[in-house]
């Protein structure tokens, strides 16, 4: 099968297949866990029963009729592509965005790739002395993302499939309330959806990171914490009370001057994180919280939200 054939059968642009071919080359893949072990692993990765059932139903058994040669090819080469960048911390697409409605193999191809990489990244963590408990909590962002994607009627996945390669390469560590992303001279902060982000929980997580990175990545030197987020938009101050967690989080940061980010629409990102939809018309969005009211009022007034970056010294 040549790359054009693979692309046509996958229903994706040939450039995307060519990219996988170039980046993965003939580098080593990694095997999936044994199917019999998979339910327990999915459970450790916080995958909910409905998602786990789908993943088990689409399992890439060698003889499975769901798995055509081009799907097998993409799975194998996607694992190799991500594995080749083990230890990397830059956003990385594991492969083309697939027509996921074609069935469980299509829907969860990059989940199977992630499962194959669990052993690989656990080995990387172990080499850095990272405790198993931190590894599993970090990697269990898979289950959280699958559940959110389900709530989003599967709109969320295209970003998630790239996001999760950070975890699979050892680029991100969940320490208490926050996820800490290695790279450069700043530890980049991400805030998973797991209840309110109280100042106490944030402070405790920052303290954990201050001890974690020098211990486990002694060759890396971090001088700041940074964050890029809708949460850092100062326009939120017009709407949220002074003592809200978002406002108190913002106060930690010194913002960089505003620049329109490339390829990212902050209005859409705000809908993603505060409504878990990208496409619902404004009039049909719920207004259950102060923030939801604020977002809708702001957009209805013809204004826009901003994605802001900021940092503060470690
Ligand atoms: C970041 C997050 C934990 C902050 O939540 P929080 O700690 O409750 O924040 P605040 O105390 O500032 O909340 C102020 C108000 O906004 C509401 N609110 C905050 N985040 C909300 C969200 N994502 N969706 C809907 N309402 C939200 C709160 O309920 C509260 O309103 P209320 O008093 O009417 O209940 C929360 O927004 C979240 O889980 N977001 C998803 C993940 C995310 O956005 N990560 C960053 C990606 S760049």
Automatic annotation (TrEMBL):
**Ranges for domain N-acyltransferase N-terminal:** 37-170
- Gene3D superfamilies for the chain: 3.40.630.120
Domain named GNAT-like C-terminal: residues: 178-312
Checking Pfam families in the record gives: GNAT_C, NAT_N
Could you name the domain of life of the organism this protein comes from? Answer: Bacteria
Under InterPro entries, the record lists: GNAT_C, NAT_N
Name of this chain's protein: Acyltransferase
